[in-house]
Amino acid sequence: MNKLPTLEFEGYSTEDCSFEEEIRPDGYNVYRSKKYGISVSLSSAKQRQQFKGKDFLPLSHFLPMINTVPVESADFGEYGDYSQAFEPEVYSSPLETDSMDPFGITSKLSPVKSPSFQK
Amino acid sequence: MCGRWLERLVALWTLVFIRIVTGLAGEGRSVWKKDPHFSPVSETQMFLYDTFPKEFLWGVGTGAFQVEGSWRKDGKGSSIWDHFIHSEFQDADSTDASSDSYTLMDKDLSALDFLGVTFYQFSISWSRLFPTGVVTAPNAKGLQYYNTLIDSLLYRNIDPVVTLYHWDLPLMLQEKYGGWKNESVIDIFNDYATFCFQTFGDRVKYWITIHNPYLIAWHGYGTGVHAPGERGKITTVYSVGHNLIKAHAKVWHNYKERFQPYQKGMMSIVLGSHWIEPNKLEDALDISKCQQSMERVLGWFAKPIHGDGDYPEELKNELLFLPRFTEEEKNYIKGTADFFAFSFGPNNFKPPNSLPKMGQNLSLNLREVLNWIKLEYNSPRILIAENGWFTDSHVKTDDTTAIYMMKNFLNKVLQAIKYDNIDVFGYTAWSLLDGFEWQHAYNIRRGLFYVDFKSKKKERIPKSSALYYKQIIRENGFFPKESTSSLQAQFSCDFSWGITESVLKAESMASSPQFCDSSLYLWNVTGDGLLHKVKGVKLKTRPAQCTDFVSIKKQLDLLEKMKVTHYRFALDWSLILPNGDLSVVNRQVLRYYRCVVSEVLKLNVQSMVTLYYPTHAYLGLPGPLLQAGGWLNQSTAYAFQDYAALCFRELGDLVKLWITINEPNRLSDVYNKSSNDTYRAAHNLLIAHAMAWRVYDEQYRSFQYGKVSLSLHSDWAEPANPYSESHSKAANRFLQFEIGWFADPIFKTGDYPATMREYIGFKNRRGLSYSLLPSFTTEEKQLVKGAADFYALNHFTTRFVIHEPQNGSQYECDRDIQFLQDITCLSSPSRLAVVPWGVRKVLKWIKKTYGDIDIYITANGIDDQSLDNDELRNYYLGKYIQEVLKAYYIDKVKIKGYYAFKLTEEKSKPRFGFFTSDSKGKPSIKFYNNLISNNGFPADYSLCDPPSQKQCSFCLFISQKKPLIFFACCLFSTLILLLTIIVFHKRKRRKRFKAKSIQHTCFSF
């Protein structure tokens, strides 16, 4: 193991910042970088030197927590067409001055939507 | 000395400079400097229910050439338009059709009577009076026509507002002089005007010289869209404009000097314009372009006449060929109008590519143009001399869009009067009759009255817009539909105040695995910071606890802040029974839900549990059931029954309110391949619900004492056009197809609504649809009928419904309905209309249709973009709950509970939540808290002291004085003990004493 990647920030790269979570049998989890094959560690360079060759770097085990960031619901095949990001429609429609309905208040086919069904 | 002189010079120049700058700026541009953070519920922006000023003038208008017809009759000369349509229009014959006002004056007069207007704005056909245009002996028949018209109007108390020139120049003047290009026409026009003042001036108090000179110059001599159809030369356009302004000024001075002193009339010129809004709200450059756009159209004529007598600076700078006014002319033209006559209609928006839009966006905001006029021309008195929109020619009397255009325009005028102090004194709806619409000929219609041009009698048939205008004139404004004033009252003391949440994502594992693991570990023995299992040692693990689920704690925090009495959430069927049958039951998930219920109970919050809550994105069926066809397969209903029974058994001791299925009527959006799919799925959903209800009724009710129902999506429907019978029928049909479809079988007949069956049958017979409603077997009927303990509704908005025949075997098509979005109505970012009275109407309708049953509103709420100031939600809650209260208090609808929608929202979806997706609370929580703690809208005192507190004042006392009571008890018991010891001791002593004395006596013997 030569030089370990550190957090010397030189711009964001997805590859550098992607880690895979792995839950250990003891209930802790480690985060491994696919690019470097090493797990995330909070140890200092000095501490790291002492543990050369071991399975895990010191201070690389974390307690798992329940995810509090809501995960987007998985799309449901053909019914998933409502999943695109919501944008308020208020200012979206331009005035159709050539039409007898310039504000577009009547729309041909608009299904009945329910906020508690459409999500 | 020298210094002072310099000072003066600088001061003078500064003054000059400032004047130039303000002159350039144009006061009107401040109209566009709006506050981008204005409140969506600000009173001055919302639809205004109020009346117009007492003396407000209500009128309607026509142009002679558009309605008179008879263009060659009775000695009338040709006008440039007669010539233009016969040379330019391909099917010139069809343009000979007309509404024939020249011969059918009585019909026009009855139409005016019908509306109840105070004035009629019409124009005199110049060539009908003077066939060549030059004033000589007038054409007697023409003269008689206008005399009779004016007299008949006055007889009916209708003021004539007379336009001298509405675009129909006598053809001779065009041919001889080149029309308005030639200055000599000015004097000829003045002669004609003089004749009119002499002849009609004794009876006419309002004169219009010219109607919309911009369109005459621009389209008559520029684009060639209008007669005389000259194209191309921009210099001609502006010299025509120049002559029109001079002609107007001349006629005004003529009237002012010779006629006004004794005729006492007023005169103006109708100026028309579009309106425009900047692309970017706060962009100064865009705002400048808007200002330029307005100056090029309205400013061109308005600044000379209503301003300083000269063209706008910008126009003069840009167009070097623009004719110049001499100082003398400026003074002559300046102020030649007694009021500002303004036209705002489709002609100024057409064709769109001919407008100086300057890259900005056209707008129909009448209130803002009026503000611009007020600022630019020093708050003039304004007559709206033409306003309205048009309909396509196929629209006959049901001109629904025209109603909403009129509603919008007129309310903007009212707002301008009430909030912006703009002196609008009259309004001309355009127009009285369908007629010739210039470049569109008869392809569009603008009348309040329909005329069938092919018919013989040419009856004037009032359109919906005529009925609407009539109503506004009668009421002199707008009256709210719902007139019951706000109630000060409360709901019943056992009313449940709830909050709704969708499916709770269950944690499939307790989140602290350490507590389930029986091994013992050593940490960091070798200094490696790792855990090492100690072999052979097994510890006792702690039994599972609800605190193991981290997410429940979060739910509790949110609920505590809501201060609700009830919490409505949904279970995840596919998680509990992954196989769809009872072969695998995920106990962990069930335990999670049980924990939610029991933990929530500790907060004194009851749960209302929804068993099945499908959404568009997540159908929520266990995989195997989905593969077997989902709700199209009847076996899904049986699987649901088993699932429901499981939930009743596992949770029923704690849950007293059950919803089997949330919005089964919305699954029509998912099973929409054909109407037969939709109806089949609905049928199975009904059976599934009914079987679940039966299971509860037969097996669990006797000891669990709960109630079971299903939540139906129940929005209200209102006819978009209140004057159209087909719309009223459509609104009723909508309710039957939406609500009755599920509610009739359960709460009423055990079968689908008759209206629905009949309508589908009717469409079948006409070959418009091959839909077939399933029929219930006798057993199914018995099963379904009565299978609910209360009516539960999710209500969000009111839809305005149009009857629109559709073709196709789809559920959406079967009901023949189209929706209309009322732009004058407050609506949310996701376009939900805020119509509070709609909830009262639907509640009354449910009571009327399904009897006096218990009702729960299981979801009601609105999306609001704002995170830190969700005023729209506050407004919505306040207004809707007030209407629910009216339904409860006045209409005696048995409403048992209200559940606000919803607790938390999802990311990048409409913001319906009281909490954001990362659990940040919004201000509306406080608002809802208040409603809950007041139990409605109490007056001064609360009728309903929570009875539990009264009963428990003793418990309260005990709980508060616990230590004291304990101490007192101790003291008391010690005292008793002491006393008994004393008594006991004394008795013993007495006994001993007695014994002694006996001994003594014995001895004494």
Automatic annotation (TrEMBL), chain A:
Residues 93-119 are annotated as: Disordered. It comes from the Eukaryota. Residues 107-119 have a biased composition (Polar residues). This is Fibroblast growth factor 19.
TrEMBL record, chain B:
GO terms for biological process: carbohydrate metabolic process. It comes from Limosa lapponica baueri. PANTHER family: BETA-KLOTHO, GLYCOSYL HYDROLASE. InterPro entries: GH, GH_1_N_CS, Glyco_hydro_1. One of its GO terms (cellular component) is plasma membrane. The keyword Disulfide bond does not apply. It comes from the Eukaryota. GO terms for molecular function: hydrolase activity, hydrolyzing O-glycosyl compounds. The chain crosses the membrane at residues 964-984. It is a single-pass membrane protein. Its main location: membrane. Keywords: Cell membrane, Glycoprotein, Membrane, Repeat, Signal, Transmembrane, Transmembrane helix. Belongs to the glycosyl hydrolase 1 family. Klotho subfamily. Residues 1-23 form the signal peptide. PROSITE patterns: GLYCOSYL_HYDROL_F1_2. The keyword Transcription regulation does not apply. It is found in: Cell membrane. This is Beta-klotho.
